Amino acid sequence: MDHTATVRPLAVLVFVALAAALPAGAATFDPKALVVGRADVPAGFRLDPDETGLRTNELEAREHPETRPLFRRLGRVTGYQARYENAADASIEARVDLFRNANGAHGLHGWVVREMARSGIKGVVSKRLRLGSEGRMYSSKLFVILYWRSDRAWSALAGFGVGESKTLAAARAQQRRIAAALRS
Predict the structure, then answer these.
(1) Fewest C-beta in 10 Å: which of 29, 50, 114, 166?
(2) Residue 128: what pLDDT?
(3) Does 173 map to a domain?
(4) In whole angstroms, how large is the CA radius of gyration of the chain?
(5) Rounded to an integer, what distance in angstroms lies between the CA atom of residue 174 and that of residue 48?
(6) What is the pLDDT of residue 183?
């Protein structure tokens, strides 16, 4: 069964929400280093280079014009996303968005939670996610989507056909990367 046709519209909604001048300290780490790496995902997954890369504000505005005012208001600086897939049509999609301060990341988190509630997608269970400063988990038979904030970084990680435990393990690895970078 090709689950991507079923959940791709949801993924677009999810990652539209995700995606200025750099504040002091923003240049001290590369946003690529904040998302899960090859060693953080299950064996057999490979990086999809066409769906991986830097997500500048300009790129986000070009692909999703509705994000321009939101990102400007929230003080988004930049972001990065990575997509891993395997031969069984499973995938892990990860994203980190950096903001000038924690209020921006908190604002995006609240906006995404509201959008998910308004989406009306049937069969999705929502619950609190204990990761970072605040988080949410949305799950169904086909996917697990995690959103969380840690200081001025906002993250999303989605597992399609991967299962909850492997999706959570990848998210915890991503959070460790974020926490280490923000400490330095």
Answers:
(1) 50
(2) 96
(3) no
(4) 15
(5) 18
(6) 84
Query: Structure tokens of 73?
Result: 């208001």
| Dihedral-angle region of residue 140 (phi above 0 means left; psi in -120 to 50 means alpha; beta otherwise) | beta
* pLDDT tens string 13-24: 444 444 333 333
In angstroms, what CA-CA distances link 160 with 55, 96, 110, 121, 155?
Answer: 21, 18, 23, 16, 17
pLDDT digits (tens, 9 = 90+) for 129-158: 999 999 999 999 999 999 999 999 999 999
Distance CA 150, CA 137 (A): 15
Domain that holds residue 93: 3-121+128-164
Within a domain: 172: no
Query: What would the pLDDT profile of 55-112 be if each residue is shown by its tens digit?
Result: 999 999 999 999 999 999 999 999 999 999 999 999 999 999 999 999 999 999 999 9
**Which pTM value belongs to this model?**
0.84
Flag whether 54 is in a domain: yes
Domain count of the chain?
Answer: 1
> Domain containing 76 — which CATH number?
3.40.1000
